[in-house]
Task: inverse folding
């Protein structure tokens, strides 16, 4: 199992270094091709995202990936030997690939993009013919592991940023946001971000209101919504299912009595207030009303923090899954190593059998088809029965500690060395 | 046949808390429901009887609950009602299958069998819809609570469907069930009128049924006009449901609401 991986990520290297190493999409094929031409490298793929640059290879003999890094990226010897660059081999490399694909190595653990990025990198390398059986086995297993982690743990489940928590809450209340209306009162970076998130989640209509009407008009234009004058806030707000407030008002804008009126006008259809203003724009008493859901900045933050903690717990479970999968993969790879031996064993015996068949045909003269078939079946039976034990022993010992010894013994007994070498090539 | 169904439901119920097994359980329950339907149809064809015995009623009710469950599941992708439906169905089928089938106690000849059949099946569809409305309103309360607890509750990201979805399930079932309940009661009245005349309506069971129907109507009315949902709707549907359960249980207590000799 000669896998080798070298790279940098957001933990190991500062942004300046990652920037220098980052490979734009247009240059990715070139990087892959250069990598597989590097001495000792048999198969290779390159993953380059904003948080990591990694070269994954399957190698035949000793190959120096650091020297490749040095020459390809023009890094100084100092930098090359620094701890910014990590290198994994064999089982460690397998584990790392599994962890990356499962988003355990990501900056935001559990974020879903990384798997897609790995898939793209894989597709590029495959398209160039840089991936064969070994790397193919590893990376497709990594996809399966990532899927398993995603379905068996809640690692990507709950949102950890304020604006995505807001969206998730809105979805918990309204289900689909497609036919919902959002009212954005006030303007601020956070409000803008949350509005953007809501729009990308399918919110259908967005209304802006601001003390400075100009600003509301600007935002309406930027987001493709409409603007309402601030004076008409209370008359128009009941049209909204979600109200996002972020004004600098020192007194709450929305109080319980407003809420009561909205509910009446809306025939008790629920409303969701996302209040990210400090001091708060929505009176706490509003939350007491049935059908009114008010989340202020602290609430959102505590949900996000709770989700982060939850993710950590889930990440631990995911690590366990990965441990199991690494072991399983390693033993599978080891059992693959005996496949050439088994094949050459079978081939050799078949050659002997054929030769003996020819000899007996010469001695017995013409045989009837029935006789021919009977001899054929008998010789095959003998060969298969004789080979059965060596093959099963090889297979079952493949992942055990005696693997190398048994492998060697069988090769010697059946004199397979030469052939095996040939087959491997 | 009923035993097999009951057993399947039992398995479902026992494992119901482990959500991981949904993939195996739902098909199993679906298969059980199909068998159940076959059994019911077979029974009807063979005996040519209306399901007027209590045990048959239980069996039919169990089947309707399961059928509703699957309709809701397919439409809204949620198995949450299963929490309540599976145990209930299990108890109903258990009770239905444990009873010895006593032939010969058919409905008395004075009462038209087809009217009874209509009465019973319509009412049962109504009951099932009411049960779903009731349970949906409970889920609504739970989910509302979750959302108001601001993520401090452990079950916060539980797999309950969105509030609006729960609301819609409850409402749809309410609207769907109303005509069945109404027609069922009318059919029942026709039967009773023919047999007992006006004194039938003084029976407590009948009064409870009428009361239940009134609450049901009020539920619909408040929903349409004021948009009542959540807590208030839950209270009302609880009252209607309790009345329905009492009315059903009264079958075995009522003096007049019996159409077969003991």
Result:
């Amino acid at each position: 199992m000669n896998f080798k991986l070298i790279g940098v990520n957001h933990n190991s290297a500062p942004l300046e270094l990652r920037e220098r190493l980052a490979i734009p999409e247009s240059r990715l094929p070139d990087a892959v091709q250069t990598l597989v031409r590097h001495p000792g490298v048999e198969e290779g793929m390159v993953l380059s995202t904003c948080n990591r640059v990694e070269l994954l290879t399957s190698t035949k003999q000793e190959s120096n990936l650091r020297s490749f890094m040095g020459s390809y990226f023009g890094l100084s010897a100092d930098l090359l030997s620094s701890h910014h660059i990590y290198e994994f081999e064999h089982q460690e490399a397998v584990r790392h690939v599994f962890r990356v694909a499962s988003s355990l190595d990501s900056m935001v653990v559990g974020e879903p993009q990384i798997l897609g990025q790995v898939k793209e990198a894989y597709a590029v390398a495959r398209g160039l013919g840089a991936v064969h059986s070994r790397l193919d086995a590893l990376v497709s297993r990594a996809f399966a592991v990532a899927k398993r982690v995603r379905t068996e743990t809640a690692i990507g489940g709950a949102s950890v940023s304020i604006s995505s928590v807001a969206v998730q809450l809105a979805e918990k209340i309204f289900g689909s946001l497609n036919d919902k209306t959002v009212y954005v009162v006030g303007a601020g970076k956070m409000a803008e971000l949350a509005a953007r998130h809501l729009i990308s989640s399918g919110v259908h209509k967005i209304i802006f209101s601001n003390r400075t009407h100009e600003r509301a008009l600007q935002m309406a234009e930027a987001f493709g919504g409409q603007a309402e004058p601030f004076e008409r806030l209370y008359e128009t707000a009941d049209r909204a299912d979600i109200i996002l407030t972020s004004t600098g008002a020192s007194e709450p804008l929305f109080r319980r009595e407003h809420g009561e009126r909205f509910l009446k006008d809306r025939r008790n259809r629920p409303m969701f207030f996302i209040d990210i203003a400090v001091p708060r724009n929505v009176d706490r008493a509003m939350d007491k009303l049935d059908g009114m859901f008010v989340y202020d900045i602290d609430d959102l933050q505590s949900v996000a923090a709770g989700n982060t903690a939850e993710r950590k717990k889930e990440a631990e479970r995911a690590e366990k899954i990965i441990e199991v999968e690494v072991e399983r993969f390693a033993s599978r790879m080891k059992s693959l190593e005996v496949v050439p031996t088994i094949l050459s064993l079978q081939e050799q015996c078949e050659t002997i059998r054929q030769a003996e068949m020819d000899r007996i045909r010469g001695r017995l003269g013409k045989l009837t088809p029935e006789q021919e078939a009977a001899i054929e079946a008998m010789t095959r039976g003998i060969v298969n029965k004789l080979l059965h034990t060596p093959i099963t022993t090889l297979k079952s010992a493949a992942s055990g500690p005696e693997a190398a010894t048994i492998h060697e013994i069988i090769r010697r007994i059946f004199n397979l060395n030469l052939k095996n070498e040939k087959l491997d090539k | 046949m009923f035993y097999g169904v009951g057993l399947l439901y039992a398995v479902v119920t026992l494992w119901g808390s482990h959500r991981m097994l949904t993939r195996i359980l739902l098909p199993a329950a679906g298969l059980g429901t199909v068998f159940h339907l076959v059994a019911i149809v077979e029974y009807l064809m063979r005996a040519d009887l209306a399901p007027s015995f209590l045990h048959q009623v239980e069996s039919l009710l169990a089947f309707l609950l399961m059928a509703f469950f699957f309709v809701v599941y397919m439409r809204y992708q949620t198995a949450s009602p299963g929490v309540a439906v599976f145990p209930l169905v299990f108890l109903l089928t258990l009770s239905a299958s444990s009873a010895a089938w006593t032939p010969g106690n058919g409905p008395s000849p004075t009462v038209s069998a087809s009217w009874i059949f209509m009465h019973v099946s319509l009412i049962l569809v109504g009951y099932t819809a009411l049960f779903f409305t009731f349970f949906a309103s409970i889920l609504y309360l739970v989910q509302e609570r979750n959302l108001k607890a601001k993520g401090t509750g452990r079950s916060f990201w539980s797999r309950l469907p969105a509030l609006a979805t729960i609301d819609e399930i409850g409402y749809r079932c309410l609207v769907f069930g109303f005509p069945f309940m109404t027609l069922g009661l009318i059919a029942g009245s026709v039967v009773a009128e023919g047999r007992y005349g006006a004194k039938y309506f003084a029976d407590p069971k009948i009064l409870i049924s009428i009361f239940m129907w009134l609450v049901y109507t009020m539920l619909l009315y408040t929903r349409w006009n004021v948009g009542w949902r959540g807590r208030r709707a839950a209270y009302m549907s609880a009252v209607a449901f309790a009345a329905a359960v009492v009315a059903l249980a009264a079958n075995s207590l009522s003096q007049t609401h019996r159409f077969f000799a003991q």
Remarks:
- The CA atoms of residues 201 and 207 of chain B lie 7 Å apart.
- Helices of chain B lie at 2-15, 22-47, 54-76, 82-98, 113-148, 163-196, 204-225, 231-249.
- Chain B touches chain A through 21 residues (CB under 8 Å).
- DSSP finds eight helices and no strands in chain B.
